[in-house]
UniProtKB/TrEMBL annotation:
The lineage of its organism: Eukaryota, Sar, Stramenopiles, Ochrophyta, Bacillariophyta. Keywords: Methyltransferase, RNA-binding, rRNA processing, S-adenosyl-L-methionine, Transferase. Its EC number is 2.1.1.-. It comes from Discostella pseudostelligera. This is rRNA adenine N(6)-methyltransferase. HAMAP family: 16SrRNA_methyltr_A (MF_00607).
């Protein structure tokens, strides 16, 4: 998987600035032409310029490791199960190795690419083909760009933006059908890691709370040009619909705290001075917002400090000596409900 530094150095991109704004590119609009004037073109023409695209010097600081094995491209696109009516969002099309088959199978592809050299290459590959009118390219940083409506997302992106991209997709609305994404192997395995596994982390629980993730295939480093240092994997992400009935800010506040030291007991993570101070402040704010005698709180709870409440909760048989690294989603949901019921809030 691409392992580049997520550089803010715009000149390193070999293109225009990675600005906060993003700009749409489209050959159809640029040339002011319509698809009907391209009727003699074929899909084969789109693929034929693949060889020339391979001459572009990859900028590895932008994670430019291009998929060079057509069988892998075909397999990834097949896993996306694209319908002819679909709008596809492709993040980081690079020289267009996946963009071309995506265009051939869908109604519309919107690609977000940071490097203008890549954009020119993709546009060149579709010029005068049947696919040209179906492609829209937005130049910019995918993390800063507002995503358009889409049915399916396909992406092979640098490792540095993987986490931000997953979180962006998890909160994207309206819900999309699925995202088929290539990641560095370890990152992909974190997404599906289970309690007790070494890679189980905040990313695992947040992702699994909001989505179903399937490991689809392993992709060896030699399928890329240039080969990255590590192996890659392709996963499918499907958002849970409806989403779980939990306040995500509250949830993530607790998960972040517990996974800071996931192998320590809940007691030793939560009963530290800075944590108690923070939870006391949250409690004061909540009490002020709700009125001191909060009807949702159990009798007598509103006189206790957060330290007392934490002490009581982590002493319960259910939570005694438990560590985040071994708890599953249901455990975390029950723990959060217990704290919230007693007036302890993490947001
Ligand atoms: C690993 S290459 C993949 C290229 C192509 N999809 C393929 O599989 O051959 C990643 C692509 O993402 C682009 N990229 C890197 N950071 C980006 C960002 N923040 N936003 C949008 N595109 C980015 C790179 O310029 C590069 O073209």
């Amino acid at each position: 998987m691409p392992k580049a530094k997520r550089s803010r150095n715009h000149s390193a991109a070999g293109g225009d600035a990675r600005g906060a704004t993003s700009a749409p590119y489209s050959l159809a609009s640029r040339n002011n032409t319509t698809s009907s004037s391209k009727s003699s073109s074929t899909s084969a023409a789109a693929s034929s310029s693949a060889a020339s695209s391979n001459l572009i010097a990859p900028n590895t600081s932008l994670g430019q490791h291009f998929l060079k094995n057509p069988a892998v491209v075909t397999a990834i696109v097949a896993k996306a199960a694209i319908q002819p009516t679909d709008t596809i969002l492709e993040i980081g099309p690079g020289t267009g190795n996946m963009t071309i088959p995506l265009l051939q199978q869908s109604k519309h592809v919107i690609a977000i690419e940071y490097d203008t050299r890549m954009i020119r290459e993709v546009l060149k590959r579709v010029e005068n083909t049947n696919e040209e009118r179906k492609l829209q390219i937005i130049q910019g940083d995918a993390i800063k760009t507002k995503f358009p409506f889409f049915d399916v997302c396909v992406a092979n992106v640098p490792y540095q933006i993987s986490s931000a991209l997953v979180f962006k997709l998890l909160s994207h609305r309206p819900m999309f059908r699925c995202a088929v994404m290539m990641f560095q192997e370890e990152f992909a395995l974190r997404l599906t890691a289970r309690p007790g596994e070494a890679l189980y982390c905040r990313l695992s629980v947040n992702t699994q709370l909001l989505a179903k993730v399937d490991q689809l295939m392993k992709v060896g480093r030699n399928n890329f040009r240039p080969p990255p240092k590590v192996e890659s994997r392709v996963v499918r992400i499907e958002l849970r619909n409806p989403p779980p009935p939990v306040n995500f800010t509250e949830w993530d506040g607790m998960i972040r705290l517990l996974f800071n030291r996931k192998n320590k007991t809940l007691r030793s993570v939560l009963l530290t001075k800075p944590t108690i101070k923070m939870l006391d402040e949250n409690m004061k704010t909540q009490r002020a917002l709700n009125g001191h005698n909060n009807n949702n709180m159990e009798d007598g709870e509103d006189d206790k400090t957060s330290e007392q409440i934490i002490e009581e909760v982590v002493s319960m048989d259910q939570w005694k000596d438990k560590r985040a690294s071994k708890l599953d989603l249901d455990d975390f949901l029950a723990l959060l409900a217990e704290f919230n019921k007693r007036g302890v809030h993490f947001a």
